[in-house]
């Protein structure tokens, strides 16, 4: 297969038009092919002379699409590099944006055919664009190709840069929602880390406020799914879902009210509340794929955290035994599990049959927790200021004493 090599004799765009046209009409015979190729090249020249770059892009992308299955990947990469370069031609950013939309939409139309190459072309186009919003639109098409073409491994590494990209793109809420949900769907399909998936689902749900009653209704299924995934996750013990409007709406929803109640149990209640819930809703839990024994284990750890939040900082073995509904010889092993999960820091006092808690994790981190943290930081800042004042006062006093001693010696 001949590779497209731009020369000084012909514009690269015209070379691509000629190459793709010849390949498209090759089977028709020279009598039919030559007039068609000539016609397409003349049309391309007219677009270039008149500065009609969007029309030229449309002509080139249509021809290139016809040969996508015939040309080698090396040729296709060269062809689309020239086509993508058209976004640099217009003086108007709006026209450049339209060209990028045209190219990226066409590339995403048949994701199962050479999906890795299509992703490569889209990232090439992304890097050529000056418009931040244009880059966002191309990235969304890349997500589409990655998901539908089953080449998610190629794009998942970029998710760690999402916060940086969001600042660059400066997106509105609707676009943010679309981005977070698309990423979550890819992670879900890829069966990636539950924590990563829940991170983007939480970001998605956080874009809704109580004011947009119409929009918030569309988040119900994702809110319920997020709750269930949080409950299933054996290593997740804290979330900010409870106070989110998109999640709170489930409390009065006929379909998902019990799911919301389950979230409340796992975030603010103890094991006995879960067991009561299970008694009347065991079939519901099974329908969501929740395993009763796993839920009990997680709720026991959650219960230890709740006990640790007691201001006395001391929990008796008997209280742990009764609250976790376990045997007395299991108390220490469950405390060790809580320590291993980094839910608490404590000392086990076997002599007095108590554990002394020095730190515990918050199960919910909402407004009240932020206020408590602010109070602690204010107190800490005041204490540090007092220490500094005392040190400075002592330093002045010491310097004064040394001066007096010096005068006495003289």
Automatic annotation (TrEMBL):
Alphabetically ordered keywords of this record: Cytoplasm, Initiation factor, Protein biosynthesis
Homology family: Belongs to the eIF-3 subunit M family. Belongs to the CSN7/EIF3M family. CSN7 subfamily.
Keyword Cytoplasm recorded: yes
Subcellular location: Cytoplasm
Entry function: Component of the eukaryotic translation initiation factor 3 (eIF-3) complex, which is involved in protein synthesis of a specialized repertoire of mRNAs and, together with other initiation factors, stimulates binding of mRNA and methionyl-tRNAi to the 40S ribosome. The eIF-3 complex specifically targets and initiates translation of a subset of mRNAs involved in cell proliferation.
InterPro entries with a match to the protein in the record: COPS7/eIF3m, eIF3m, eIF3m_C_helix, PCI_dom, WH_DNA-bd_sf
Entry-linked Pfam families: eIF3m_C_helix, PCI
GO cellular component: eukaryotic 43S preinitiation complex; eukaryotic 48S preinitiation complex; eukaryotic translation initiation factor 3 complex, eIF3m
Main subcellular localisation: cytoplasm
Example GO BP: formation of cytoplasmic translation initiation complex
Name assigned to this protein: Eukaryotic translation initiation factor 3 subunit M
GO molecular function terms listed in the Swiss-Prot or TrEMBL record: translation initiation factor activity
Domain of life: Eukaryota
Annotated PCI domain residues: 196-362
Subunit description: Component of the eukaryotic translation initiation factor 3 (eIF-3) complex.
């Amino acid at each position: 297969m001949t590779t497209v090599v731009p020369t000084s004799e012909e514009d690269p765009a015209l070379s691509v038009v000629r190459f793709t046209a010849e390949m498209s009409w090759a089977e028709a015979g020279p009598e039919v092919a030559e007039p068609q190729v000539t016609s397409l090249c003349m049309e391309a020249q007219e677009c270039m002379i008149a500065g009609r770059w969007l029309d030229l892009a449309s002509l080139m992308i249509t021809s290139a699409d016809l040969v996508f299955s015939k040309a080698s990947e090396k040729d296709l990469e060269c062809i689309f590099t020239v086509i993508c370069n058209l976004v640099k031609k217009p003086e108007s950013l709006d026209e450049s944006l339209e060209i990028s939309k045209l190219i990226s939409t066409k590339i995403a139309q048949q994701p199962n055919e050479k999906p890795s190459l299509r992703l490569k072309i889209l990232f090439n186009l992304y890097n050529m664009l000056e418009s931040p919003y244009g880059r966002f639109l191309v990235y969304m098409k890349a997500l589409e190709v990655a998901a539908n073409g089953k080449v998610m491994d190629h794009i998942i590494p970029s998710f760690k840069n999402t916060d940086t990209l969001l600042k660059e793109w400066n997106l509105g809420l609707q676009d943010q929602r679309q981005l977070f949900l698309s990423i979550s769907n890819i992670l879900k399909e890829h069966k990636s880390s539950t924590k990563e998936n829940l991170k983007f689902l939480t970001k998605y749900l956080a874009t809704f406020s109580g004011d947009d009653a119409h929009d918030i209704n569309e988040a119900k299924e994702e809110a319920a799914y997020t709750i269930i995934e949080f409950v299933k996750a054996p290593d997740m013990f804290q979330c900010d879902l409870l106070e989110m409007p998109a999640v709170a709406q489930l409390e009065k929803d006929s379909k998902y009210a019990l799911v919301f109640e389950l979230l409340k149990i796992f975030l603010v209640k103890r094991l006995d509340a879960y067991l009561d819930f299970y008694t009347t809703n065991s079939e519901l839990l099974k329908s969501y794929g929740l395993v009763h024994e796993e839920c009990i284990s997680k709720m026991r750890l959650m219960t230890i955290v709740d006990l640790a939040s007691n201001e006395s900082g001391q929990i008796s073995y008997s209280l742990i035994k009764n609250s976790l509904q376990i045997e007395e010889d299991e108390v220490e092993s469950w405390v060790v599990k809580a320590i291993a999960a980094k839910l608490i820091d404590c000392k086990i006092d076997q002599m007095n049959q108590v554990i002394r808690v020095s730190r515990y994790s918050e199960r919910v981190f909402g407004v009240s927790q932020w206020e408590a943290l602010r109070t602690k930081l204010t107190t800490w800042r005041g204490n540090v200021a007092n220490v500094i004042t005392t040190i400075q006062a002592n330093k002045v006093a010491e310097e004064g004493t040394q001066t007096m001693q010096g005068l006495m010696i003289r």
